[in-house]
Amino acid sequence: xxxxxxxxxxxxxxxxxxxxxxxxxxxxxxxxxxxxxxxxxxxxxxxxxxxxxxxxxxxxxxxxxxxxxxxxxxxxxxxxxxxxxxxxxxxxxxxxxxxxxxxxxxxxxxxxxxxxxxxxxxxxxxxxxxxxxxxxxxxxxxxxxxxxxxxxxxxx
Length: 156
Description:
Mean pLDDT: 86
Radius of gyration: 30 Å
CATH class of the largest domain: Mainly Beta
Order of helices and strands: HEEEEEEEE
CATH topology of the largest domain: Immunoglobulin-like
Strand content: 25-35%
Number of domains: 2
Structural class: alpha+beta
Strand order of the largest sheet: 1-2-6-5
Number of strands: 8
Distance between the termini: 99 Å
Helix content: 10-25%
Shape: elongated
Low-confidence stretches: none
């Protein structure tokens, strides 16, 4: 009776095949990880409407009143406001706490209930007129890092 031989005499072909399969698998995994990382860098976060504003207009001012706040009301010193005129030129970029109760570049924030937070019934006023702000001016309110947009609104 002959013994069955389970071992190949020439085992050199097995190692290069396994090495090639491993190299291809590692390359595919690294390419997928790199793709996900690069994709996250170039995608801008969506605008999340966390603050609801209502606009009213008088002869002198545009007034944007806070009518709703989603979640916890942010502190004024952590909220950044950027105001563009109707031509798209930036006129103001500052913290809400810096314009609380004072006019700065014809924009003022009013912390109505004096709690140092952006919530109902606070408001933002913009002076109205051809040398100030007009229909088409845009206001963007974000967190300080600019990673979360609370509201973006265009004056009508």
